[in-house]
Amino acid sequence: MVAGILLAAGSATRMGRNKLLLRLEGETLLRRAARRAIGAGLDPLLVVLGHEADRAREALRGLACRVVENPDHARGINTSLSAGVAALPEACHAAVVLLADMPFVDERMIAGVVARFRETGAPLVVSRFGETHAPPTLYARALLPELVGGEGAGRGGEVVRRHLARAAVVSQPPEGIADVDVGEDLEALQARLEVRR
User: Fold this and answer.
1) Which of 77, 5, 11, 81 is CA-nearest to residue 43?
2) How many CA atoms lie within 13 A of 190 on its CB side?
């Protein structure tokens, strides 16, 4: 069993509003990310919410995911990672951590990470976008306790650096690393999608 932890609890202070409820191609960024994680076969998918949790729950209506609320979300993304790991079922062999503000991460990219884990049994499977490591990242059961604890950000990256020598790597399309932090980011992504069409 490979579960998913979708981190979606932040308050998006740079955006000035809940960026995960903004729409791209007709659906919110949050729903888009959750739908793709489910489509890639992650089961269960745990969606960690915090800021405006009620509105976020509504955006997820009808999707086969489980919401985990993080009351400490204001203390940083590490608290959401901890909440997600704590809610994982004991039977899961690994968990893929995803960020809800990376709208170009799709089912194929997520499934590729899971497939590499099943092929190699590596304790860590990292996505490489050009020269950069970023989610989706798979952590095997033995590494999950290292993701728990602390405030702020960066715990997932610390675990990646600690175990990189034992990791399997999946090369992902460089454009997949695009994220949304400010309004201009979303406008740029919409323009890119228009060009593709």
Assistant:
1) 5
2) 13
Pairing mode of beta strands 45-49, 66-69: parallel
CA distance 80 to 72: 8
Whether the ω angle into residue 123 lies within 30 degrees of 0, i.e. cis, is: no
**Other CB atoms within 10 A of residue 68 CB:** 21
The b-or-e profile of 150-176 (16+ CB within 10 A means b, else e) is eeeeebbeebbeebeeebbebebeeeb
153-197: pLDDT as tens digits:
889 999 999 999 999 999 999 887 877 665 566 666 666 665 555
Residue type, 49: L
Nearest of 30, 27, 50, 28 to residue 38 by alpha carbon: 30
Place of tokens 């890639």: 40
Q: What is the pTM (predicted TM-score) of this model? A: 0.91
Single-letter amino acid code for the residue at 71: P
Minimum mean pLDDT among 97-101, 107-111, 143-147, 185-189: which range? 185-189
